[in-house]
């Protein structure tokens, strides 16, 4: 698949951003709704905690595998058609989810939904990298984080209201309607953006200095090979991507795996209703947005070393988890604030590794592949954690489960600090 057309006028670029923002925002409504409905499904005896965790694990495994496969395909296929397909299939799967109550069938349907939703993010990053100039692509890769935050907030809010009015099945049907509408909007909107891009060919001297004037990668290994040509395996081995794998996996465990269980934790620890626990959880995405912009600030303060910046946020998450472990359900307000620090910190790590780092591989034509690979690693951590959390809570209780989160987060912090030190020694 050839390069996409370049956009030089502000209005079209902004329209493209809004379209991508809306698509990713809507995808969150069709994925986090399960977390909201899960609490009520457990309470009604439709699923045991281990079964609920297994379905969530299947979703994240499918999403992670899809990120890897679709990331590679996203560099070869038309990104607009991939995103339309992902939204459409996700709409159908959400609709089907509202008509079944069998554990195995639910797991299969939700797994297909996970793979379909993995068709959205890698093509979005490729679209930004190829259709926008340097300043806009960096700005929009930060700003699009707000779609995750708003989507999380909207998902919990819609789910709480719909479940209160019509039960958990209606939660999936409402998400299906949102996804189907967005697929139609995307199909029409992106075609118009492409037509405008073709009418505005790339200029030799863009205001941002040209698309190929990216600053070399900050990390020592990535800086050496970000512009190196070759297959993805060669890029992976020579660019330093292997060094970020463990922190990326752990951040996935905390960012989405832990968040999945927050409503259940609040319900069981403070004896609230499922609807109230979901409503309380909507505070988290509002605070998470600060993590994305703090990532940019800390990244610059750390002289554009991703591992150094990530270490700062892993340290904050480690401290918050320690506080959560010690507090052990003392205060609902304190608990929500500590969870906010954890998830906002992981949103910052996500911005550093998943949004910004892949842009360094534009010259190799592997932006979508790298983004998909790193996202796949993150969701591997998410998949494992969502399933094991359910088992650990059933057998060990919440306090020991939180202690496990603390150990893994501290380990990720250690890896970031050690790798950063070795990078400095090798300069």
Q: Secondary-structure map with pairings?
A:
Layout: H1 10-29, H2 33-43, H3 49-74, H4 79-97, H5 103-117, H6 121-131, H7 134-143, H8 145-166, H9 168-199, H10 220-225, H11 232-239, H12 245-270, H13 274-281, H14 283-301, H15 306-327, H16 332-356, H17 367-396, H18 398-425
Helix pairs in contact: 1-6, 1-8, 1-9, 2-9, 2-12, 3-5, 3-6, 3-17, 4-5, 4-6, 4-9, 6-7, 6-17, 8-9, 8-13, 8-14, 12-13, 12-16, 12-17, 12-18, 14-15, 14-16, 15-16, 15-18, 17-18
Question: What is the residue-averaged pLDDT?
Answer: 81
Helix segment count?
Answer: 18
Q: Which runs of at least 5 residues are low in confidence (pLDDT < 50)? A: 202-229, 423-427
What is the helix content? over 70%
Describe this structure as you would to a colleague.
This protein has 427 residues and is mostly helical. The protein contains 18 helices and no strands. α3 (49-74) packs parallel to α5 (103-117). The radius of gyration is 21 Å and the shape is globular. The two termini are 38 Å apart. The relative contact order is 0.15. Mean pLDDT is 81; it is low at 202-229 and 423-427.
